[in-house]
Amino acid sequence: MSASRPMSASPMSASPMNASPVRANAIWRIAAAVALLAVVAAVPLTSNVTLVHVGVFVLMYVGMAVSWNIFSGFSGYISLGYAVFFGSGLYTVAIFSKHLNLTGSTVFAFLPVGAVVAGVIAIPVGLIALRVRRHTFVVITIAIFFIFQLMAYNFGFTGGSAGILPPYLNWDPNTFNNPFYYIALIVAVGSMVLAWGIWGSRFGLQLRAIRDDEDRARGLGVKTMRVKLIAFVISALIAGVLGGLYFYFQQEALPEFAFNPFLDLTIALMVFVGGFGTLWGPVFGALLLEPYLGYAQLQISNSYVSEIVLGGLFLFVILVLPRGILPTAREKLTALRAGQQRRSAAKGASPPSGMTASAVQAGSGSPSTGSMR
Amino acid sequence: MTLLRAEGICKAFGGVQALRDCSIDVEEGSIAGLIGPNGSGKTTLFNMITGYGRVDSGDVYLNEKKITNLPPDKVFALGIGRTFQLTRVFHRLTVMENMIVAAHHKERSGQQGSGRSLNPFARAGGPATRKRAMELLEFTGIAKLAGDRAETLSYGQRKLLELSYVMIADPEIILLDEPAGGVNPTLIGTIADRIRELNKQGTTFLIVEHNMEFVMGLCDRVTVLDFGCPVVTGPPDVIRNDHRVLDAYLGTAEEDDDSSAA
Amino acid sequence: MGSRLFQALADGVLGGGVYGLMAVGLTLIFGVLDIINIAQGILVILGSYLSYVLWAHLHIDVFLGLLITIPLMFVLGVAIQWFFIRPLRGRERTSMSLLASYSVAIIIEGLLYQVFGSNYQSIQTKYFTNTIKVFGYYIPYIYLYGFGLAVLFVAAVYYMLYRTQFGRSVRATMQDQTAARLIGIDVNRVAALTFGIGVAVTAAGGMVYGSINSFSPNSGADLISRLLAIIILGGMGSIVGALGAAVIMITLESLVDVFWNPNWSVVVFYAVLVLVLVFRPQGILGRKEARAQ
Predict the structure, then answer these.
(1) Taking CB atoms and an 8 Å limit, are B141 and A1 in contact across chains?
(2) Can you give the pLDDT at residue A362?
């Protein structure tokens, strides 16, 4: 009755016959990841400025999608207020750079400041917003977003509707994009590593339990408010860094761009396309969509069409692929393998009795830790 | 010795008096049953005991310590486990992960040497926790599903999972809300066996059920609830033949009714 | 000072009535379908544009035009629910339907931009230019008629809910979908029709809104934010709450507008919302829900 079938990545795979395939598997994965990283890091060396430019956006969106998902995807609380922290980080860096007259590489030294400010803002915002039910929560994030946008328009120190301009960066236009590329890359990779670390941790497990049944989780002793708030702040920190980066990259701090309502929608779309709440879905979604969206933005000067396309795409994903591409693909693969297993089992011994269906599903080849890696 | 005691619980929802002066006590080491027609207040009583709602009046005592109106997590931490009529499992998490979540506060208090650390990013579930989890899963017979997501489990398997993860916290007493409800007959037998076995090892049970065979075959003592009030308490044979129980279920007591109270 | 106060109050109460009308549709949809229709704001604007077209190009009186726009919007509402909301299943339908309605909203917004451009329009009718003098302040007729229309519609909704067979099914569905199904109520039909009704009232709201303010496709976003704030404050699913909150909030905004600073009047709106939620997450008339989702 107990598990005799090796579950390759399960916590109980202690038997020696599993050790080498698991380790070999892991080594291949790490090698592939490193190779991929090397390729991506080498892009700026191609001297193709447009490519690097697009690359910066793609990497930024990967970072944003992953960090958005760390909170919204894992906890199930859809937030449409990511832009609040993005914009806060952006304006923080902008204000510092204007008052301290930053130039050269010192501009990047202030990115962490943007992150910290965004994170600090996230605490009271989270404490207020996280006390309500999920759909009220979305609305509150929208309300807070509008408050921040309005503040940006009306406060003096944000420059009002004229915004803030960055100091002139006297850099070679051929390599201007490169530092941004590398920083975006670091943030993107860092976010992914963070997400991966959170996923398997006690903290991450509790967060995911909250998504499934928050009241039950609380009843079992999980400190739900604390867990949600920590994830919320983590997400905000990364948003702050990327916002600050964006300020120098786009060379402006304007209320409608720093606090852009479409940012959250775009991020949410990417995450949903890839697989909401999964580990790699956001990466996949961002990599899939941003090149197109970025290109379309450049080509189609009429942004109203892109609005329609965005909305249409979102509807399509929600209605047709509600779980996203990665989980749906994985399900199809599992079902396929289960079918094969059933066929080969029918030829050989009789299938396991009693809990047949799930045993067959458990017998499928996919590493069934249940995590959507 | 009385382990769990509820005294004079009153609870109303709007105009409906769900519990009126309801008292019950459960002996340590026993398996107590709680039966009654639909709407008699059984689940409400469970909710009051386990903190899913506040009593209007009355008190609950665990080991003679007052625990009235404590929130569910505190009640759980004090050693009262509870399952639900409609099983509540974390459906996207694996069976093993469900177990680990429930073991959380045991890990926090450092029991079982389960590798608790201050680092919140530490791996979920230390080796001791996982070992204990597997033991329990093997005991309830769903160990081979440890790596499967809870949503793939059948209804009966979910009941076993709920029982397992409630057990991992080593509760003194477990409140089971309709453990046999909607489960196929073979599995019901398994569940009853497991309860008996756990009881032998020291866990007390209070079980709400509609399945009379299940209750009568398993429980030492049965309390019958009707309209939020306990009507009669006693061993199964006595209850089975008491006319007040028939009244409660059927509304009238007629001489030629058969003795089954269901 | 007195007349300024009266002006602010008049604007607030009368305007609040109109906002209340739009909010009632939103809260009704939430109460029955358990979803937040983010598209409500842009649908109001669509109503404004429809009234505008009928008035500007076909010279139809705006109130008469309602006879066309209301059924039109009703059908649109039913269609949106039927094609984009109803197919959503699974545990997270609420969040998904929110995103679905958001998508519909931006599609409609994009289409409006395409057709009408980004310039501001307004419906300049005699109802706006003709005024009646009350307490030293001139109130355009449209305010009064708009308020009256709002009262009429809310009364109609109430009548529907409490005096008709259909209304009974709606209330039953609001309380417990499964139970409603069990007693033979076609929940799908109720959902579709309720959504249609919720959207149909936006036709009236849009006409009044467009007769008072100038609007562009951009106005939808601001509108929905306010409507959402209103229904949360009033308690989601509560019709009385929506009305009350609308009047209170718009009056408050109007007071800030007149006596303090117009730039900040909108912020006050959201700030009050946040404040209330700190102390009372379920809104003023909302019920405390223990559900996890």
Answers:
(1) yes
(2) 37
A33 three-class SS: helix
Tell me which chain B residues have a C-beta less than 8 angstroms from the C-beta of A12.
96, 130, 134, 146-147
Q: Which residues of B touch A217 (CB under 8 A)?
A: 90, 101
Instruction: Check if the beta carbon of residue B36 is closer than 8 Å to that of residue B261.
Output: no
Residues B104 and B76 in one domain: no
- For domain C2-279, the question of CATH label 1.20.58 is answered with no
Rounded to 10°, the helix B95-102/B127-140 angle is 120
- H/E/C letters for each residue in A337-361? HHHHHHHHHHHCCCCCCCCHHHHHH
Question: Which residues of chain A carry a pLDDT beneath 50?
Answer: 1-18, 350-373
In a domain, A243, yes or no: yes
By Cβ distance, the residue of C105, C229, C236 closest to A143 is: C229
Which chain C residues are Cβ-neighbours of A307 within 8 angstroms? 106-107, 109-110, 113
Q: Phi and psi (nearest 5°) for C163?
A: -120, -5
Lowest mean pLDDT among A138-152, B43-57, C187-201: A138-152
Residues of C in contact with A312 (CB under 8 A): 103, 107
Q: What are the pLDDT digits (tens) for B62-82?
A: 998 999 999 998 999 899 999
Interchain contact, A370 vs B100, CB within 8 Å: no
Q: Is C289 a residue whose pLDDT tops 50?
A: no
Domain ranges for chain C: 2-279
Residue in B91, B146, C89 with CA at minimum distance from that of residue A212:
B91
A150 vs C90, C103, C267: nearest CB = C267
Domain-located, residue A341:
no
Assess contact for C132 and C138: CB atoms under 8 A.
Answer: yes
Tell me: do B176 and B245 sit in the same domain: yes
Tell me how many residue pairs between chain A and chain B have CB atoms under 8 A apart: 140
pLDDT digits (tens, 9 = 90+) for B162-219: 999 999 988 999 999 999 888 888 888 888 999 999 999 999 999 999 888 889 889 9
State residue B260's pLDDT score: 45
The CA–CA distances, whole Å, from B193 to A306, B13, B139, C107, C184 equal 63, 37, 11, 59, 41
Report d(CA C56, CA C50) in Å as an integer.
Answer: 10
pLDDT of residue A6: 35
How many residues comprise chain B?
Answer: 262
Residue identified by tokens 């905000």 is: A236
Best of C36, C97, C102 to disrupt the A interface (most A CBs within 10 Å) is C102
Is A6 touching B (CB cutoff 8 A)? no
Nearest CB neighbour to B121, from listed A203, A357, A370: A203
Single pTM value for the model: 0.83
ipTM of the assembly? 0.84
Q: Shortest CA distance to C99 belongs to which of B241, A291, A270?
A: A270
Tell me the helix, strand and coil percentages in chain C, rounded to 5.
75, 5, 20
List b or e across C175-203, with b for residues whose CB sees 16 or more CB atoms inside 10 angstroms: eebeebeeeebebeebbbbbbbbbbbbbb
